[in-house]
Amino acid sequence: MKTRAFLLYSFLMFLTGCNTNDVSKTEIVQKHRDIIVDVSESIVDIKTEIILGSSYLYIIDDILVVADMSHKADRCIHLFNKNSFEYIASTGIIGRGPGEITNLGKIGIDEKSEILWVADFGKKVMHKFPLDSILANNNFKPTTCLEMHDELILFHFGFLNDSIVLGRAMHPLSHSTFDMTNTKLNVNTNEIERFGYENPECSGKTKIASFSLSVENSFYVNCYDECDLITICDLDGNLKHNVYGPGWNDKDQDRKSYFFGSDIFNGKIVAAYIGDLAFVFKGNFTRGAAPSTLIVSEKDGRYLKTINTGYEFERFCIDEENKRIIAYFIDREEPLGYFNIPVE
């Protein structure tokens, strides 16, 4: 009898131990991120005659796509050779006519079909820009677009395949408020739906997050602006890991910004990180904070290193082939620059 009781107790303890391990693998706390790699002395300027304002950066094939959100010129999308940074062409004509852009949003890259899907928040559409059409016709204007949905407005997104888009969408709550949610869109039928895991401790503005997708490595990631949180999910939307940083539940969390964009390189998550007050005050001048560091983690949530650039930047992308990070800096004479990804 004692033997049976002991075996039952051992079995229950085994089950409890398994559950504890599963939880610990899912819920990860990073109390310290103190492995610092400084690249401030190795940033290389990318010189261009085109005057650029605040820009989003993307890579498609051998091309660096610079999407200028400031509309400084009559075209807002500029293409460069990603290897030499030689200027190739500009597209995305600013205007209110057919195929023109009024308020440039994010760009979704369909790498397999070599198509840029360009969000226009003014017209509430996503324009279809085939890469070969842009390169063949300097005055190309798209004739195909998708109407944006009023309930779920795609903000950050990537292509799972040539017909399905996964991303982060804005969900308007009133004329002045919104939250965000994971979303799936079929570009053939224009059907959109909520999709995948949402951390139950995030609500309202703390749900604002950037989104990155890696089909090759079978996961996507959300990096949150208003709380120190990364969620990693499989391509079916199931949670793999919640990663909580040192600022999670900080008493001053409501006044701080945390993540500010992300990308995936060789199965690793690279996320721009602020971890400080959301606004910078200099005399009578106030602006939003910008990151100067990048947090690098494994796809299982394990922290690897922090890359210190020494300069504030707004956006970045990763050139996997050349193993370098390209960024738009706000406090350098040449706003575009790159540095090699530090070796492990």
Characterize the main sheet.
5 strands, mixed
Oligomer: single chain
Q: What's the helix-strand series?
A: HEEEEEEEEEEHEEEEEEEEEEEEEEEEEE
Runs in which pLDDT lies below 50 for 5 or more consecutive residues are 1-23
If you compute it from the alpha carbons, what radius of gyration comes out, rounded to the nearest whole angstrom? 22 Å
**Count of beta strands:** 28
Helix vs. strand class = mainly beta
Approximate shape: globular
**Biggest sheet, spatial arrangement of strands:** 1-19-18-17-16
The span between the termini is: 56 Å
Question: Mean pLDDT, rounded to whole units?
Answer: 90
Task: Explain what you see.
The chain is mainly beta and 344 residues long. A five-stranded mixed sheet has the order 1-19-18-17-16. The protein is globular, with a radius of gyration of 22 Å. The N terminus is likely disordered.
Label this structure with key terms.
five-stranded mixed β-sheet, disordered N terminus, 344 residues
Layout: helices, strands, pairs:
Layout: H1 2-26, E1 27-29, E2 36-38, E3 44-45, E4 55-60, E5 63-68, E6 75-81, E7 87-93, E8 104-110, E9 115-120, E10 125-130, H2 131-136, E11 145-147, E12 153-159, E13 164-172, E14 178-186, E15 191-194, E16 209-214, E17 219-224, E18 229-233, E19 239-244, E20 256-265, E21 268-277, E22 279-282, E23 285-288, E24 293-298, E25 303-308, E26 313-319, E27 324-329, E28 336-340
Parallel strand pairs: 1-19, 2-25
Antiparallel strand pairs: 3-28, 4-5, 5-6, 6-7, 8-9, 9-10, 10-11, 12-13, 13-14, 14-15, 16-17, 17-18, 18-19, 20-21, 21-24, 22-23, 24-25, 26-27, 27-28
